[in-house]
Amino acid sequence: MARVFVYGTLKKGQPNYKHMINTAKGLAKFQGRGRTVEKYPLVIAGKYNIPYMLNIPGTGHHIAGEIYSVDEQMLQFLDEFEGCPDMYQRTLMRIQVVEWEGKGGAGEARAAADGVLECFVYSTATYPPEWVGLPYYASYDSSGKHGLSYVLRESR
């Protein structure tokens, strides 16, 4: 099992969460909530209003999201879904645990005395330069005050 941190449309209550609970794509077990230890820019970009975490450590906000434990099948699905490695790149990042719900894995979260876990995160280093000038968010919600509703793939 691998740990994945999701901050965008794959979170609970967001447009693509359905994929996280579709066992035909693999297993994803919700473990808790966290935020990036380092600051990153989280922008909403492109004509489909897609959230992107730009891989520019030290700029932006501590990004809020959810921590999942996923099997190899789900990890492969997520790589494909996220257009890895072209659109997003899957990298290990340090995530501060904010709230832990994982059963049986609670000791694992506590094992890091500082409450920090390494998780795979889909961020991007391949983006148009003008994206750096977009507004930065600390947390993503498709129906947030920004007014930039995500466009589902099946509606494009």
Which key features would you list for this structure?
Hypothetical upf0131 protein ytfp, alpha+beta, 13% helix, 156 residues, two-stranded antiparallel ribbon, 5-stranded mixed β-barrel, Gamma-glutamylaminecyclotransferase, GGCT-like, transferase
- Classify the secondary structure makeup into a structural class: alpha+beta
CATH H level: which superfamily? Gamma-glutamyl cyclotransferase-like
Major β-sheet profile: 5 strands, mixed, barrel
Low-confidence stretches: none
C-alpha Rg, in Å?
15 Å
Can you name the CATH architecture? Roll
Beta strands, count: 7
Based on Cα principal axes, name the global outline.
globular
Strand order of the largest sheet: 1-5-2-6-7
CATH fold category name: Hypothetical upf0131 protein ytfp
Question: How many helix segments?
Answer: 3
The helix/strand order is EHEEEEHEHE
Total domain modules: 1
Helix content: 10-25%
EC number: 4.3.2.8
Enzyme class: lyase
Function: Catalyzes the formation of 5-oxo-L-proline from L-gamma-glutamyl-L-epsilon-lysine.
Keywords: Lyase, Transferase
